[in-house]
Amino acid sequence: MPVLLAQPKQFNLISGNCQLFNGNVYAFGISGQKQNSSCVIYKLNQQLKVQDSLIVNLGKTPADNYLQVFSDTLHNYLNVYIQRKDKKLITILRLNKLFELTATIEDVDVARLNSISNFENELFYYKNDVYTVKSQTDTGGKQFYLNKYTLKSELKNFEYEPKWQFPFERKNINSAHIFYADKKQVMLYVNVSGGLKFGQWILKVNSVTGKLIRGTKLNDKGESTSYQYGTFLMDTTSKTLSVIGQRFTEAQFDQRTNKLAISNALFASIYLMDIDSAGEVILKQDFKIPINEPKTTSKKTISNYLLRLNNLNKNREGFSFNGDIYKNTNTTLCYLYANTVSYKLITEDETLVLEKNSVGTNPAIEKYYFNTDKMDMNGKLCVDSLVQFETIFYKGLNFPIKKYFKTVDNSPVWLLTRSDIKKNSINYTVLSPVNKIYQLTVVDDILKSKDPSIIILSPTQFILSSQEEYGKFQLKLVAW
User: Fold this and answer.
1) 380, 336 contact by CB (below 8 A)
2) What CA–CA distance (Å, rounded) separates 358 from 285?
3) Tell me: the pLDDT tens digits for 400-442?
4) Alpha-carbon distance 28 to 18, whole Å?
5) What's the pTM value of the predicted model, to 2 decimals?
6) Which tens digit of pLDDT belongs to each residue from 360-392?
7) For 103-112, how does the pLDDT look when each residue is reduced to its tens digit (9 = 90+)?
8) What residues are paired with 405 via a beta bridge?
């Protein structure tokens, strides 16, 4: 499969960056005229043709006295953040979908920037509301809280006022993960590690009042299986929630004694549950996926596999989803990305059947980023202890290898990236079949000093950005 690079688009900017917002690409950075500096923002379509531009005067400061400009799209705005190298104060330029500058917010202390994210570790945004999970430990144990905050003003630095707090039961809550919110409800995956309510739960909390609507236990009565969170699908028509993830028997993972024993398993187990609007489980099925371990001469080789599931979809045939496969060959709690596989659950005689497939590694992916440096975090997923084990299935990666995965003519194709410590660069590579043989095709290898970044536009296009030299910020459109 050929990789095609369009003519690079360059802008006379320093400290440049880019952002995808509302279907358009925005390129921005600092432009200087003698002692005056400006922030210039370009609005481009997805073919990188300039549609509009905006210049904001920054005053009498040399252009090279600014750090790299950065941005986000919080609360449905394009927020551009500008900081001088000699100050801890930030200027925020806030634009709406119509490319109108709605606010210029000056002298914001960097410590107060989107302040809610500085002291909460589990955040979930829904429009102008923010939900957080916070825990406190005292002599009585650990107490978890679900908090709701609402944005105070769209014209100032994003700060929030508390609306309500939902305290979880005090004992035995091990973790809580927010995965869905709308104007009526907030949903969480909660792991209870002891007591009468031991097991995994889906909690539904009223988003207006902060009161518990319903708790649905994923384990059957007396069942010791653990159900790890993978991903979900909310059917707004039938008001049904589908949840899918990897499951472990008590012999494989015992929370009470903190023991994990999944080495050299013959298969990986997953579950699928449908939960109706009243919180009742109306479908529950388990599936075994064979593990296809490469043949080795050593019988002492350890292989442990974890599945992080994503892209759950429902169709007339049944369900489809992807599984990111992580593997380790030792007794540590660090796993390396090894493959992505597409799976299907087909409806047959009113039950779901897993279409033939397996769990295994992809040698080309392992080859792509393999090295012996134990400090290398490329594709690495770790937890400090088994107490945190359930979080490994949804926590973010510092250096993800897989940037995008798709299927072309029934063949899987990857967009891969890695941080190269020796070259001090970021590598972007496509893994795809070329004349029916899988090959790694390097798209670009950009020095970290050029502040590279990537934007996925669609399943067939992405953009690479870099500060090629002083005053030359570049975008490359890549078709693959």
Assistant:
1) yes
2) 18
3) 999 999 999 999 999 999 999 899 999 999 999 988 899 999 9
4) 6
5) 0.94
6) 999 999 999 988 888 889 999 999 999 999 999
7) 999 999 998 8
8) 414
Residue 137's DSSP bridge partners are 142
Instruction: Give 298's pLDDT tier (boundaries 50, 70, 90).
Output: low
Cβ neighbours, 10 Å, residue 98: 8
Cβ atoms of 462 and 456 within 8 Å: the answer is: yes
DSSP three-state, residue 197: coil
Whether pLDDT at 119 is above 70:
no
Examine the pLDDT at 118 and tell me if it is beyond 60: no
Amino acid at 36: N
Closest-CA residue to 346 (of 357, 338, 337, 335) = 357
End-to-end CA distance of the chain: 7
> Which pairs count as long-range contacts for 344-353, CB under 8 Å and 24+ apart, including other chains?
344/317, 344/318, 344/319, 344/320, 345/272, 345/287, 345/318, 345/319, 345/320, 346/317, 346/318, 347/317, 347/318, 351/285, 352/272, 352/285, 352/287, 352/318, 352/319
In the structure encoding, which two tokens stand for residue 98, read together?
């119509």
* Distance of alpha carbon 208 from alpha carbon 129, whole angstroms: 11
C-alpha distances in angstroms, 57 versus 47, 301, 328?
28, 62, 53
User: For residue 395, what are the contacts with CB-CB under 8 A and spacing of at least 6?
Assistant: 381, 383
- Whether the per-residue pLDDT at 214 is higher than 80: the answer is yes
In terms of phi and psi (left: phi > 0; alpha: psi -120 to 50; beta: otherwise), the region of 471 is left
